[in-house]
């Protein structure tokens, strides 16, 4: 059976930083409240010239560089986003044009904050079935365009950014994606949703905003990420002590800590950067993975656990045995 591994990775975040102190000037909140309830200190905000495709293309270029592939060699581009450039075409097609990857088949996946993991599932399965020889998987979000900047329940949580990985078959036995499990619950879709499309220039954008029942979302996030991970560990006959590093969706440090506690996962095995970037939805795991890679936290043979939860509701966990990627900055 073909094993599929991550052979390249990269990320991009906009320059503009929005701190909790900046938010104090917009809504009735405080730096202390935001840190205590979410762990977030600051988040990045895209400039008016940036979009999910422009940020995604920069992350994608870095991912291709680490994979030592040229864009023409890419077979498939999947972009996970719930804040696309427009309703259509897909943001993946926009990225295809920006990076000049004419031989790729392109589409988006909208599974909100779970989108990067859903895209890993789809991309790896299409490579395993030998329909495609590689895939560029990008999580990219411009959530700032969906935020109601008068709603203190939501505007404190989200940020913009992009992360990308390249998937390829690996000849290294036992490396690559081990397995995954996902769940969905459309009956609870109204707990977290966005009105209007995130089209930068459309009048409809004025109507676009995120609506959330924070406490219910919190409870569902903790319980679903815990249970899907436990099920995946059982399915793959993996013990929690076998996990070297968990990279969860960066929604909120309290959610991450509660899931880690439920799984009996030590804090030093859980990667977090939510303090720096807030919740970047589908971009959060690939941004964190790239940061963990450049922080030298990933070693060959490490068992990585990704787990995510998002609007839909959708959730999932992926187990992956880390292979070899050379840091291009050290060559
Ligand atoms: N600053 C100050 N006070 C705030 C506030 C803010 N930004 N947002 C809400 N409050 C107030 C509420 O109005 C409420 O006041 P009241 O008691 O006078 O009515 C109080 O704080 C408590 O509100 P509550 O909603 O119970 O807070 P909470 O502890 O649940 O924290 C969230 C709110 C949003 C941080 C929390 O519910 C959460 O993280 N939910 C999950 C969100 C998420 O991760 N979504 C994405 C999933 S992918």
What does this structure look like?
With 331 residues, this protein is an alpha/beta fold. It has 2 domains: 3-170, Thiolase/Chalcone synthase (Peroxisomal Thiolase, Chain A, domain 1, 3-Layer(aba) Sandwich), CATH 3.40.47; 176-323, Peroxisomal Thiolase, Chain A, domain 1 (3-Layer(aba) Sandwich). Helices cover 30% and strands 25% of the residues. It has helices at 20-24, 31-38, 52-67, 91-99, 115-128, 214-235, 253-262, 274-277, 284-294, and strands at 3-12, 16-19, 42-45, 76-80, 105-109, 135-141, 161-170, 176-184, 192-195, 209-212, 245-248, 303-310, 314-321. Strands 1-7-6-4-5 form a 5-stranded mixed beta sheet, with helices on both faces. Strands 8-13-12-11 form a 4-stranded mixed beta sheet, with helices on both faces. Strands 2-3 form a two-stranded antiparallel sheet. A hairpin with a 3-residue loop joins strand 12 (303-310) and strand 13 (314-321). Helix 6 packs parallel to helix 7 (253-262). The chain is globular, with a radius of gyration of 18 Å. The two termini are 33 Å apart. The mean pLDDT is 94. The chain binds coenzyme A. Coenzyme A binds at residues 29, 33, 37-38, 113, 152-153, 156-157, 212, 214-215, 217-218, 221, 251-252, 255, 279, 309-310. Coenzyme A is lined by residues 29, 33, 37-38, 113, 152-153, 156-157, 212, 214-215, 217-218, 221, 251-252, 255, 279, 309-310.
